[in-house]
Structure formats: structure tokens, C-alpha cells
Amino acid sequence: MSNGRYGEYGGQYISETLMNELLYLEEQYYRHMNDPEFVEELNTLLKEYAGRPSLLYYAKRMTEDLGGAKIYLKREDLNHTGAHKINNVLGQVLLAKKMGKTRVIAETGAGQHGVATATAAALLDMECEVFMGEVDTKRQALNVYRMELLGAKVHSVKSGTKTLKDAVNDAFRDWIARVHDTNYVIGSTMGPHPFPMIVRDFQAVISAEAREQFLEKEGKLPNAVIACVGGGSNAMGAFYNFIDDEEVKLIGCEAGGRGIDTPYNAAALTKGKIGIFHGMKSIFNQGEYGQIAPVYSVSAGLDYPGVGPEHAYLRDTGRAEYVPVTDEEAVNAFEYLSRMEGIIPAIESAHAVAYAMELAPKMDENDMIMICLSGRGDKDVRSIAEYRGVELNE
Amino acid sequence: MSKIANAFENGKAFIGFLTAGDPTVEKTVEYILAMEEAGCDLIEIGIPFSDPMAEGVVIQDANVRALKHNTTTDDVFDIVREVRAKTDIPLVFLTYINPVFFYGYERFFKRCSELGVDGIISPDLPYEEKGEIAEIARKNDVDVISLIAPTSKERIQKIAADASGFIYIVSSLGVTGMRSEIKTDLNSIIGDIRDVCDLPLAVGFGINTPEQSRDIAKIADGVIVGSAIVKIIEEHGENAAEPLKEYVSSMKKAANE
After folding, report:
1. Residue A265 CB contacts under 8 Å (≥ 6 apart), including other chains
2. Which string of b and e fits A176-189 if b means at least 16 CB within 10 Å?
């Protein structure tokens, strides 16, 4: 795709003040990705620091219990900082450093991207400030403290709906004032070009590894790859190297919240319309007259009223399909995987687990499903207890 | 020649911004007329948006107030109709692109043309994406106002060469809001623009005092003020007409000292 377009989606709908910086970022990105030294440095960090490659784990008990397709988990939860976010962040912060920047900023919903950015900033000795909706700072208070421990400054964003989209707004507002020394380390495959491409490329390591691991373990590719989709970075990473393998079904799970027939969901591809926001043309939840709609999900990481442009394109071309998964289904899957495999998934990833639980029994025993287990669920234990009405006294 | 040129025929121009529907649709009409009476040469009407990414807190809050009572794009067109019944003052919309996209480009610009909106400024539609609306706007005689920022550098000349109406020079890095001093080398930016285009040049972002108005007017054709006006409306609510007139008149006067 040229010029950051994915069909009609993508583009660079952003303030003139940021345009030269985006063009410079793109130029620097290509320059460094073509520099074997940079690639080697990044790969070393991914291996020695983040713990890659991540395991491809055969979920035997789950497979036997559900009866049907063999289920594999791509264990991004085992990465340092507990989620796939570190893959992208190491790339972007290293790039920022090479570009001579001294400060990075990030938005965060669940806090995983903020923690990952703060981590990489500590490692690479950069100043770091993270923007997080006030609502999210409350439901993910532990992650706020983790970021502070790592030396980052956390801004509690009180504008708008006080969640992820507002954190993105404030991150852009900060960046526009400090383009000279700051890079915006965006957390998902969203925003103006080149961000959706850069984040996808850094996350594509997930499917690059998985493809090899399947060929090595099973001698064939999986029949389906399932991942949760908020902005869509773990899904894009999990899909990317399978896109040309047309026999591999690609399925994204959106936050269905309390149901797609209620206003309480964040299922952009299911309920949204085409629009232009946060620098990109894509699909957004919006009200009459194009006001961006408040969205809801039990999962702070999926609580975003839009989706990355490449996902919109994959949907339109039919290469990937996107399904809504409700809070209740996700929480059930959260508990199920914990009991069945001894793995507590992030509530975001539990959306993908939930859909796999529905799909696996309908498939043949010779079939295989890969779930991208994008993060671990320690951060969610408190809010899931609350969801179930369990009181925790600490 | 677009009607926007008229705004620059009465000495140095003063351009005032307000958010439609803040505090009410009726008051917006009244305040536009009051500002014109006090010497405002062109009015920027902000179409309220849920996520005004390029705005500082003052204008963000105005958007929240306008949307609280559900000011719609159709309401904003109603404001224009009421204003147009009384005056020919050049009017431009300041709007994020999504409300326009959602309304439908054809339908939006046709209504602009019917009601007499002379231009559109979209802070999230840079040169690269101008193609979204350029043709349709031209067909409907609506000028797409180009923004040039302190970071534009070698982009200045291609943006300026393709501009219409007037050129909006962003004085400072960052979002909208009042600033105590403008540090950008505006002379050099203006020089670069003048090499390729003779449209009127107006400077905005951060300007709020008569002293700034006077200084900017020495090097540019017009002064744009948003946050300071919105702040007056925030403070005086439904009784802002008189303080607005006083303020606009002092700024227009300073620009022409």
C-alpha cells in the first residue's frame, strides 16, 4: 500500500504542525529498518530483554474439554511486561532514540502499553510521560503505580469520556507542542500514517514466529487465527504473515460489551461507520452528525471507538472477519482458561479465547486454531472480582 | 474573487472565532452580529466536535458546552441563515473533518453555498488530504483555507501556491490557547509565502492582547483570535455581547495603530 492507504482507509488527517514530523518519522523508519545494525540491536532486545520468541503452547486440556480443533496459544503474555505491547514499544523507542529524541509519550487504556513504554524508556534512558483516561486510572490503578515505579509521569486525562480515545487526544496535543524533542509512541495500529504501518511491522513478529512454530510442530499452518481487536495491534501482528495463506481464517474479536444491541459496546467493525478521526480514515462508532460515540467494554484495552485502518480494509476485502464478544462471554473465558490451563489471560485476550471456545467444537479434530494470548490477566483480577460481585480486601 | 477578500479591505483585518451553540444557538447569532458591529472583519464559526484534538482547554470546554445541549451541524447552518439575513460579513467554518464527512461532502458544501458560507478551515485536513474536499468546495465557491505552521518549512511554498481565500499562519507550536509571547520567526514564514502567493495572510494561535494584535498587524494582513473570545463568552455566558464588543473593538483598533 502506498501513502499509508489500505484501500480507501488510512491516510494522514492531522494538523499541519505535525506533517513534517510524520514525513520525517517515515523516512527515518525506512532508513533504520534497512540498517542491519538497527535490526540486529532490536532483535537482540526482543530476545534478551523481552524474552522472544514467545511460546506456541498446545492447550491440551482445553482442546480435550471442548472437543474439536486443536487449540494453540501464542503466549504473548509471557513477554516482559506481560503483553504483546513490548514488541512495538522496543522498536519505536529505539527508533526515537536513534532519531535524537530525548522524550517519548504514549497513550494507554488498560495500562499495558503505558507500562511497556515506561519500561523501554527506562531501559533506553528516555524521559517518558503517559496519558491515561481518568476512568482507566481507577480501574487499572496498579498499572499507574507500575508506570510511576518505572520513572514515567502519568497524566490522568479528564476531558471527554475520560478513557482511551481522550488519552489519544491529549497525547497528540502534547506532541504538537513538543515535536522537536518528543516522539509519540502510539500503542496500536492506528493514527495517521506511518503509525499503522510501523506498529504492524513491529508486531508482525508474532505471526512470523507462529508460522514457523506451526510448521515445525505440526508441519502445517493453523486453520484459524483468532485475536482480540481494540485498535488492533496484536491482531494485526498475529494476522500479518498469514494474510497470503488464504486457507488460514483470520478472525478478530471486538468488545461486544453488554451486547451489540445496547449502546454499551466498543464493536466498531460491527456497529460503526466510516469516518475520519485520530489521523485516519477508518471505521468508528459515531453518533448522528459524526460526533465520536462514547463506547464501553469491561476491558479498558478494547474500550476504543474505532479500529486501525488495515483491519477495516481486511474486513471489506473479506480476508478477515470480525465478531463481537460480550463482557459476559469474555469473563467466562477468563475464568475458564484460568481453571483449565492454569493461565490467567488478560480480559482483552479473553475475548479471543471466548470465540475460540465457540468455534473449536464446530471444527474437525485435525483442524487447528491459534489464539493470540496477547497479555496476562493479573491486572484484571480486581475488576473481574468486582464484575462477579466478589469483595477483595487488601 | 471570493468574498473573503472583502475582509482585508478595511485596514488590517480582525478575525474572531466562536464555537457555535456556546452558550446557545440564539446567542451565537447575537454574538456574531455584536462582533461585526465592533469592527470584526471575518467570523470563524466553530462547528462543535466531540474530540477537538487541536484545541486547548478553553475551546475544548466550549465544544463540551455546545454539545451538552446537542448543537448539530444543521443548527450551525441555521445560525448562518439568521446571520445572513442581517449581514454580508465574510463567514468561514472551523470544523474537524469528520462532521463534514458524515454530513456528506456534496450536501455540506451545497448548503454552505446556498447559505453564504465563504470558506472552511479544517485543522485535520493537511495539504496531502485536501483532495477530500477541494473539488466539491471549489464547485460550490467555498474557499478551503490552508494552514501554515512554524514546522512547515519547505512545505510552505507548495501549500501557499495551492491556497485560496486567505492563509492562516499558525503562530506557535501546540494547540489553541492564549500565550504571553509568540516566539516563532513569522517574518521568515511570511517571506516564504510572499514568494509564491499574494493572498492575504492572517496569524492566529495564542494571540489575545492588543499589544500582540498591534505587533502581528505590522507584519501580517490580519489577526485571528479564538480562545480569548471564547473565554469572554465562558465568563459572561448569556450577557457577553457588550464585553465582546469592547474587546473586539480594542483589538481591531490596536491592529490598525
Report:
1. A254, A255, A256, A257, A258, A259, A271, A295, A296, A297, A324, A326
2. bbbbeebbbbbbbb
- Residue A364's pLDDT is 97
Note whether A156 and A132 are within 8 A (CB): yes
Nearest by CB to residue A19, choosing from B51, B155, B174, is B155
Mean pLDDT of chain B: 96
A191: nearest Cα among A126, A120, A313, A276? A276
Indicate yes or no: CB of A291 within 8 angstroms of CB of B147.
Answer: no
pLDDT value of residue B89 = 97
Chain B residues in contact with A286 (beta carbon < 8 A): 98, 102
Can you tell me which residue has the cell 495551492?
B162
How far apart, in whole angstroms, are the C-alpha atoms of residue A95 and residue A25? 9
- pLDDT tens for A337-374 read 999 999 999 999 999 999 999 999 999 999 999 999 99
Compare CB distances from B102 to A15, A179, A286 and report the shortest one's residue: A286
Q: Is the pLDDT of residue A120 over 70?
A: yes
Residue A227 has pLDDT above 50, yes or no: yes
Return the residue in B64, B69, B124 with the most chain A beta carbons within 10 A, the one to mutate for interface testing: B124
Q: A106: which strand partners? A: A130
Chain B residue with the nearest C-alpha to that of A291: B50
The one catalytic residue among A107, A209, A310, A329: A107
**Residues of chain B positioned with their CB less than 8 A from the CB of A173:** 53-54, 56, 174-175
How many other CB atoms are found less than 10 A from the CB of residue B37? 14
- Which residues in chain A have Cβ-Cβ distances shorter than 8 Å to B123? 15
Complex ipTM, two decimals?
0.96
Query: CB distance from A166 to chain B under 8 Å?
Result: yes
pLDDT tens digits, B11-38:
999 999 999 999 999 999 999 999 999 9
| A310 three-state secondary structure | helix
For B147, nearest residue in chain A (alpha carbons): A16
- A208 at interface of B, judged by CB pairs closer than 8 A: no
Global pTM exceeds 0.95: yes
The single residue listed with the C-alpha cell 483585518 is B13
